[in-house]
Amino acid sequence: MTGKFSSTSIIQITTKAITMNKAELIDSIAEKTGHTHVDTLKALDALLETIEATVAGGDKVQLVGFGTFEPQHRAARAGRNPQTGEPIEIAEATHPKFTPGKLFKDRVVEAHKPKPKPKATTTTKTKAKTEETTTAKAKVTEKPKAKPKKV
């Protein structure tokens, strides 16, 4: 089976998502701002640390147009062990939540809209057939001219 792809390997290849990592993000920001990679790394780390510390302290960070980072509290609740079905108590927890802003959502939606299909162009043969059919129909639907009456 050398040189052939199985159907599962093709699916895996075509559905693989492209992910930007931190180094690539720093490269992109440095290129756009003209700053060095070291300065960009320091700025990005400071931003992330500030957001983490603020949310961990119980406050929210709102970046208008981009989104909001905030802590979300979840109360204790009863659950079930999926393997045994035995009831268990799930402890209360607080976890970070991100809600994207309108501009961010709109940009993502716009980028992933399906592209419109190009309009089909009619070929010369199609045009000729259409003209023949239209002309033939027109001849059939024409009323015969009335003959002049003799006096």
CATH topology of the domain at 60-114: HU Protein, Chain A
Low-confidence stretches: 1-14
In spatial order, strands of the major sheet run 1-2-5
Overall geometry: elongated
The CATH architecture of the domain at 60-114 would be Irregular
- The end-to-end distance, rounded to whole angstroms, is 95 Å
Quaternary structure annotation? single chain
What does this structure look like?
The structure is a single chain. Strands 1-2-5 form a three-stranded antiparallel sheet. A two-stranded antiparallel sheet has the order 3-4. It is α+β, with helices and mostly antiparallel strands. The radius of gyration is 33 Å and the shape is elongated. α2 (22-33) packs across α3. 45% of the residues lie in helices and 18% in strands.
